[in-house]
Amino acid sequence: xxxxxxxxxxxxxxxxxxxxxxxxxxxxxxxxxxxxxxxxxxxxxxxxxxxxxxxxxxxxxxxxxxxxxxxxxxxxxxxxxxxxxxxxxxxxxxxxxxxxxxxxxxxxxxxxxxxxxxxxxxxxxxxxxxxxxxxxxxxxxxxxxxxxxxxxxxxxxxxxxxxxxxxxxxxxxxxxxxxxxxxxxxxxxx
Length: 190
Description:
seven-stranded parallel beta sheet, alpha/beta
């Protein structure tokens, strides 16, 4: 059980191909700032794109930006990390990211982000890990979630119109950083 003095850990997944001029980069940077502003700890995969943008936002807001790196891709990570954890392989990295999270935000990305979304979602569906908020940012992942949502959850957890309707609804969508923060707060009873 987490004590009131321990910060929440927000894991942000997203693509490494986004650059500072991209709206997704700017949203991830704002998300990192918001996470730090709440006193929560930001955790990412530690490399470029969404991971770098969120880390930048958190670090510049005075928060902690933890990067879970994979030896295969290098142990340095982005310049904004305040702490680095190095894992031996991709499977260990994914497990570490999932285990560390109290909540997850899934930004647009590619196949790596798809794996992260699918693994967190499946572990919670099968009750192999505790239910925690899993927020898809924007509509990018909506086709995937809508395709599998009816068959892979025992009750509808993804509400295309926005936030989950009650505590315990772990899969939702937010259009803005403010909605992400509101959803996490509501799910954590803070």
